[in-house]
Structure formats: C-alpha cells, structure tokens
Design a protein that fits this description.
Ribosomal Protein S5, domain 2, Alpha-Beta Plaits, binds L-homoserine, binds adenosine-5'-triphosphate, alpha+beta, 325 residues, 23% strand, 11 strands
C-alpha cells in the first residue's frame, strides 16, 4: 500500500432541477481531480490548485482529509498520514456541487487506495449523511441523472441516462451563496396546494427524462418549494425563470442552492447565442456579473486511476492550467 498513488476525476452536479428539491441531480461536464498517496514516511501534506480555493484549509481539518479518514475507519484500516493534491474547475459555493464532488472524490480515492473494500452503495450512504441530502452526491457518484430519496438513515436511487440531445447552459454569478444561507431562506411549512404542485412537476420531470420527452421539460421544471423563496438572494433570477424558455431554453432552474442559473437546451437549437446573451444581460441589468458556460450532462461517475508516470504528468499539466478536460 505504501507509495500507492490514486487519482480520481469527479464530475460537478446540479441539484433539484427545479421541483426535485433534495431529490434530483444531474452530473455535469466540469470536474475536480484529487490525487492521494500514502507516504512511506513523512506527514500529511495537502495541496490545492485552482481558482477561488482561498480559505480552504490545508491541514487535517480539510474536508477531503476528514472524509478519507471516514473510509479508513469504516473499512477498519489505519492511515493517519496522506499526501493529497486537488485541482478543481468547479467554482465553490455557486450551486454546482463543489462540496459533493470533494466528498465523492475523497471517498472513492481513499477507498481505491486501500483496495476498494467499500461498495458504491456504502459510499453513497456515507456521502448522503455528510451532505444531508443525496441529490448532488448521487449525481457525482453515479453520473447521469440520479433520482434519489433519503429517509435520514438510508438513501435509495435510480439512475437515468441523460438524453443525448441535451446541452446545458449555466450562468455563474461572480458572488458566492452558501447552501446554508440558501436553506435558511426556506419556510418551515408550505401549503398543500404547493406540495401537490411540486409532486406533480417532479414526477412528470422524472418521467420526461426517462421517456426522452424533452417537450415536457419546460412545464415540468417549475417549482414552488424553494425557488420562490430564494429568488431574493439572486437578483434577476425571477425574470430568468419566467422568460428563459421564450429565448430557446427547454427548461430553466436555479442550480442547487444557487446562485448559478441553469438552462437545458436542445443541442441543435439555433437560439443558443440568444439564450446566452439573455442570461448575461438579465443578470447584468440587475447589477450581477456572471460567466456563462456551455456544458453537457456527464454520463459517468468518478474515473479512478492508479497512477502511472504518464498520468502523473497529465495531473501536473492540469495543475499548471495546460490541460482543461
Ligand atoms: N475541494 C474542496 N476541499 C475542501 N472543501 C471544499 C471543497 N469544495 C468545497 N468545499 C467546501 O464546501 C463549501 C461549499 O459548499 P456549498 O454546499 O455551500 O456549495 P456548493 O457545494 O458549491 O453548491 P451546491 O451544494 O448548492 O451545489 C466550501 O465553502 C468549502 O467549505
Ligand atoms: N438540494 C440542495 C442542494 C444544495 O446543496 C438545496 O437546494 O439546498
């Protein structure tokens, strides 16, 4: 096990997809890479590479280190010291599942490091408990669209293959919005009418994804459980949710807890530039600077490699920004 080096590439994710609050997730083609080594001697070293990672601890309080220790503990292994390197293209605290990708990366990397004693299901249970909901972690772990339910002690899921014609356009505001803050904006009670609205929308959305009926997405992606309460936290969001389908989107939602806004688009849509401009201009009109990014649903979960010299070279090139995908 000494000097064994494992590298994992984990997708970002979008949670909720509108009405599926804490239940629906989709993996996206934006990634975090984590590399872990058990040093033959020496102590824990954590290196973080990528933009906007300031403030993330590089000692044993780091999320990746702590999550790895949970794997070793669950497997009855003792690995107190670790060399960890992380590179991420996923912006933090924007609603693109950065914490879930770090958790899934740490779980799968640590598990591979000690010979994969834990099943994917066991990792899913640990991850759901850590995040408090299974939507982002399920998507990052299994890839594709993941429909999940968690009763507080056990999570179950069904994975749906994303439609090949789906493209994703996200508008990522320059400000951060923590999940904690966005959850505090939610009411403790909602009306029966709104609950019924969301059960209908979410069920229809899952059926639309499963059957490939993209025409239903706009109708089914509407939400009354969390987006109306979070709208005040993202200036311009209400207008985007109301009007994005008039500018070529198949559907639109707040991505996870926000502030990123996400649209689903047919890959052959002739209105992609119009939609892109609509998102940027609407946020801009409300004083919000945002970066738009075209992504694809990511059909795969983590890619794990026990590293060779060539892969180490690739990781170093990524860290230096020479390779992006
Ligand atoms: N690679 C990482 N290493 C350590 N900590 C991380 C890492 N990525 C994220 N985090 C922690 O997770 C926090 C962000 O989690 P949060 O749930 O607020 O946002 P998010 O996961 O980006 O968005 P969302 O859950 O809405 O999709 C960061 O502030 C940081 O504390
Ligand atoms: N389902 C979660 C995703 C963010 O972690 C929420 O909307 O709060």
């Amino acid at each position: 096990m000494m000097n064994r080096r494992v590298m994992v590439k984990v997708p970002a994710s979008t949670a909720n997809l509108g009405p599926g609050f804490d239940t629906l997730g989709m993996a996206l083609s934006l990634y975090t890479w984590i590399e872990m080594t058990i040093p033959s001697d020496g102590s824990t070293v954590i290196e973080l590479h990528g933009d906007g990672l300031e403030g993330i601890p590089t000692d044993k309080s780091n999320l990746i280190y702590k999550v790895a220790q949970q794997v070793f503990e669950a497997a009855g292994a003792e690995v107190p010291e670790l060399q960890i390197a992380m590179y991420s293209d996923i912006p933090l605290t924007r609603g693109l599942g950065s914490s879930a990708s770090a958790i899934i990366g740490a779980l799968t990397c640590a598990n591979a490091l000690i010979g994969n004693p834990l099943s994917d299901d066991a990792l899913f249970q640990i991850a759901s408990e850590l995040e408090g909901h299974p939507d982002n972690v399920g998507a990052s772990l299994f890839g594709g669209i993941v429909v999940s339910a968690w009763d507080g002690s056990r999570a179950e899921k069904v994975r749906i293959e994303p439609h090949a014609d789906l493209d994703v356009l996200v508008a990522i505001p320059s400000f951060q919005l923590s999940t904690e803050k966005a959850r505090h904006a939610l009411p403790t009670q909602i009306s029966m009418k709104d609950a019924v609205f969301n059960v209908g929308s979410s069920s229809l959305l899952v059926a639309a994804f499963a059957s490939g009926n993209l025409d239903l997405i706009a109708f089914a992606m509407r939400d009354r459980l969390h987006q109306p309460y979070r709208a005040a936290l993202v200036p311009g969001m209400e207008e985007i949710l109301d009007q994005a389908t008039e500018h070529g989107a198949l559907g639109v939602a707040l991505s996870g807890a926000g502030p990123t806004l996400l649209t689903l688009v047919h890959k052959n849509s002739p209105r992609k530039a119009e939609l892109d401009a609509f998102l940027s201009e609407t946020l801009g009109k409300h004083g919000i600077q945002a970066q738009t990014m075209w992504l694809k649903p990511c059909a795969e979960g983590p890619e794990i490699t026990v590293s060779s010299k060539q892969q180490e070279q690739l990781f170093m090139e990524r860290i230096k920004g020479e390779v992006r995908a």
